[in-house]
C-alpha cells in the first residue's frame, strides 16, 4: 500500500509525458484558424505618472482595422497615422500551440479544473519588444470542459526573475493573463488580455498596466 501511495504522489506532481488531454488540446490549437474573425478591441492603459488612456479599434476580419476612438473622442490624423504604424497582430488561440506541447505538470485548479503548469518555456514564447523573456517566465493554462470539447480557457504568464532591457530598463516582475471562449461556430477566440509590468527606467520606478476586451467577435464571411 505504501508503495502505491508513493507512486501516486509522484504521478500527480511529475511533468506530464504522455498526456492524452494535453495532446488533444494541442491538436485543437493547431486546427483553430480565426484570421477571418471580425471583432472590436477596447483597450485601457495606465502607467505611473501619466493619465489613463483608452482606445477602441474595429477589425474587419479581412486584414483591415480602424481606430474608432481615443479617450472617447474621434482620433486625430496623427493618431490614425500612429495606429497604422504600430499595428498589432490579431490575437490568436493558435499561438498557444507554439509552447503548449512543452513538458508540463498537471495539477488541480479552481473548482477541480485541470491546470497545466509550465515551469520552463521554449525560447521565443514570451517576447517583450526584442527581448526574449521566456527563460525568466513560467505559465499556467486552465482547461475548460463544460462545452464538451475541452479548450484552454485561461493562460497566465508570470515572471520568475527580474531582467534588464535596453541597458536602461529593468523589469522587476510582470504578468500577462489571457482568457478564451468558443465563438458560436465553436472556434476558440480571446475574450480579454490583461498585463502588468513593474520595474524601472533610468532609475525611476513605476508600473504599466493594460486591459483589452474583445467583443462582437464573429466570422467576417
Fold and architecture overview:
The protein is 15% helix and 47% strand. The chain is mainly beta. A hairpin with a 5-residue loop joins strand 2 (37-47) and strand 3 (53-59). It starts with a helix and ends with a strand. 20% of the residues are buried.
Summary tags:
disordered N terminus; 3 helices; mainly beta; two-stranded antiparallel ribbon; 221 residues; globular; twelve-stranded antiparallel β-sheet
- The average pLDDT score comes to 88
User: Structural class of the helix and strand makeup?
Assistant: mainly beta
Through-space gap between termini: 60 Å
* Amount of beta strand: over 45%
Uncertain runs are 1-16
Shape: globular
Q: List SSEs in N-to-C order.
A: HEHEEEHEEEEEEEEEE
- How helical, in percent, are the residues? 10-25%
Number of strands: 14
Radius of gyration: 20 Å
Biggest sheet, in brief? 12 strands, antiparallel
Number of helices: 3
Amino acid at each position: 500500500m505504501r508503495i502505491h501511495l508513493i507512486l501516486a504522489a509522484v504521478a500527480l506532481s511529475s511533468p506530464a509525458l504522455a498526456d492524452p488531454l494535453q495532446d488533444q488540446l494541442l491538436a485543437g490549437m493547431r486546427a483553430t484558424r480565426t484570421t477571418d474573425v471580425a471583432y472590436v478591441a477596447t483597450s485601457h492603459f495606465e502607467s505611473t505618472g501619466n493619465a489613463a488612456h483608452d482606445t477602441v479599434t474595429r477589425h474587419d476580419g479581412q486584414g483591415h482595422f480602424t481606430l474608432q476612438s481615443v479617450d472617447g473622442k474621434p482620433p486625430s490624423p496623427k493618431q490614425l497615422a500612429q495606429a497604422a504604424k504600430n499595428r498589432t497582430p490579431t490575437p490568436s488561440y493558435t499561438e498557444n500551440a507554439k509552447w503548449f506541447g512543452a513538458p508540463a505538470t498537471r495539477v488541480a485548479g479552481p473548482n477541480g479544473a485541470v491546470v497545466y503548469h509550465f515551469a520552463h518555456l521554449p525560447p521565443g514564447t514570451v517576447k517583450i519588444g526584442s527581448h526574449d523573456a521566456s527563460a525568466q517566465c513560467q505559465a499556467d493554462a486552465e482547461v475548460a470542459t463544460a462545452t464538451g470539447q475541452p479548450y484552454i480557457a485561461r493562460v497566465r504568464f508570470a515572471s520568475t526573475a527580474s531582467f534588464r532591457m535596453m541597458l536602461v530598463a529593468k523589469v522587476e516582475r510582470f504578468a500577462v493573463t489571457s482568457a478564451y471562449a468558443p465563438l458560436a461556430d465553436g472556434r476558440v477566440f480571446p475574450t480579454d488580455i490583461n498585463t502588468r509590468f513593474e520595474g524601472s527606467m533610468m532609475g525611476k520606478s513605476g508600473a504599466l498596466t493594460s486591459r483589452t476586451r474583445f467583443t462582437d467577435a464573429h466570422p467576417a464571411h
